[in-house]
Amino acid sequence: MAEKKTNQDFWIGIGRRKSARASVRLTQSNKDSVINGKKAEFPAETDIPFELVGMKEKFGVAAKVSGGGKVSQIDAIKLGISRALEKFNPEFRTSLKKAGLLTRDPREKERKKPGLKGARRAPQWAKR
């Protein structure tokens, strides 16, 4: 795909998964990736959006993540990267959507109900 020339310096994408929230900022440089102000080696899973559109070494990523666990945070970053890439070049939307990278996973933790031990787990019950 042809690269689109834009006069913007960065692109922002917001990603969420369970209780994790990630604000991702892409810059068109091959800088180190930064998570919450610290240099970070991103897991291979966060490279998937870049590999899909053929832009693996063209962007620097700065992400601010809060909440959730490690896996949820990685998924939130991946969604944020995908949304920022779509803003960079709208032609990427079809390939990202086809791979399911622009779809937010709507599953959230179910709340605990009164009278139960968890969301659905009931206390032990004796018939007699």
From TrEMBL:
PROSITE patterns: RIBOSOMAL_S9 (PS00360). GO terms for molecular function: RNA binding; structural constituent of ribosome. Keywords: Ribonucleoprotein, Ribosomal protein. InterPro entries: Ribosomal_Su5_D2-typ_SF, Ribosomal_uS9, Ribosomal_uS9_bac/plastid, Ribosomal_uS9_CS, Ribsml_uS5_D2-typ_fold_subgr. One of its GO terms (biological process) is translation. Residues 104-113 have a biased composition (Basic and acidic residues). It holds the Pfam family Ribosomal_S9. Residues 114-128 have a biased composition (Basic residues). Transmembrane segments: none annotated. Residues 99-128 are annotated as: Disordered. GO terms for cellular component: cytosolic small ribosomal subunit. PANTHER family: RIBOSOMAL PROTEIN S9, SMALL RIBOSOMAL SUBUNIT PROTEIN US9M. Belongs to the universal ribosomal protein uS9 family. This is 30S ribosomal protein S9. It comes from Candidatus Berkelbacteria bacterium CG10_big_fil_rev_8_21_14_0_10_43_13.
